[in-house]
Amino acid sequence: MGSPTYLLLILIWAVPIIVLQWLLGLDLMIRRWKVWLPGILIPTLYLTFMDAIPLGSKTWTIDLAQSTGIFLPFGVPLEEGIFFLCTNTLVVQGMILFMMPGVTARIQRILRFVRRGPNPQDPREPANPAVGNFGSVPAKRGKSAKKA
Amino acid sequence: MSYALFLLIFIVPPMLLFGWLTRRLITRRFLLAVAALLVLCVVYTTPWDNYLVATGVWSYSKSLVIGPTFGYVPVEEYVFFVLQTLMGAFFTLWLWRRLYRTDWDD
Predict the structure, then answer these.
(1) Cα–Cα distance between B2 and B79 in angstroms, integer?
(2) pTM of this structure
(3) Which residues 6+ apart lie within 8 Å of A68 measured at CB?
(4) Residue B30: its chain A contacts at CB < 8 A?
């Protein structure tokens, strides 16, 4: 039975930042899904399976005592696949957030919210349909409405 | 296979290929985005990767690296972070242009 050490180290390192990126613009990533998904998956598959070569020549080694012992095809440890999935996710999502119109305005809005609290009637806020309605809670229809 | 040769054969060519394919799309904003990503990536990954090597989770063959290390980590590993980030950024830009034309900020 393997050890989850390496897997947990990867997840603890990467997942908080990935979630932060989602909070900032998961909607933008979904709107650009043809960049988001292949942009992550194609380099991940490439790097994961190329990893078999340096692993095979012992250029680098994953400690068996600190990894799950689960292997992907070509003898690549599961952790290496998860690692490349995480790093490519961070890079592609970072690029989408940096390049997408409206993200700068969204970050400014969040900073203003953090400093001063919600102010939906801020007259300096330009109407920008690309930005969405960050910071305000959309009215939901559903269970709570039925109860009332 | 030495670490440097691995980078040269498997990481540099795709990075250069997508860099070349997107050479006319490189804007000031793209360069700023890549620079920011590179700084964040190196700053955030360095302590973590040093921990991995220090605790032996990840180890490398001393005879297959050039020699210099920063902390516990061989210099090639830092080059890998940078090349992988560049490759990812160019590939993202290439996909974006092909699939959505240019709708990023300039």
Answers:
(1) 14
(2) 0.83
(3) A2, A3, A4, A6, A7, A77, A78, A79
(4) 99
Compute the Cα dihedral for B53, B54, B59, B61 and give only its sign: positive
pLDDT tens digits for range A74-128 = 989 999 999 999 999 999 999 999 888 788 888 888 888 888 876 665 555 555 5
- Cβ(B69)–Cβ(B46) below 8 Å: no
A47 contacts chain B (CB < 8 A): yes
Q: Where along chain A do its domains lie?
A: 5-100
- What is the nearest CA distance from B87 to chain A, expressed in angstroms? 9
Average pLDDT (B33-39) is: 94
Helix intervals (H) in A32-128: 33-50, 52-56, 78-99, 103-116
Q: Can you give the pLDDT at residue B100?
A: 81
pLDDT cut 70: percent of chain B above it: 95
Contacts of A42 in chain B (CB under 8 A): 91
* pLDDT computed for residue A123 by the predictor: 56
The C-alpha R_g of chain A, in whole angstroms, comes to 21
Between the alpha carbon of residue B68 and those of residues A148, B6, B44, B72, the distances in Å are 68, 17, 21, 10
Q: Are A130 and A99 in contact (CB under 8 A)?
A: no
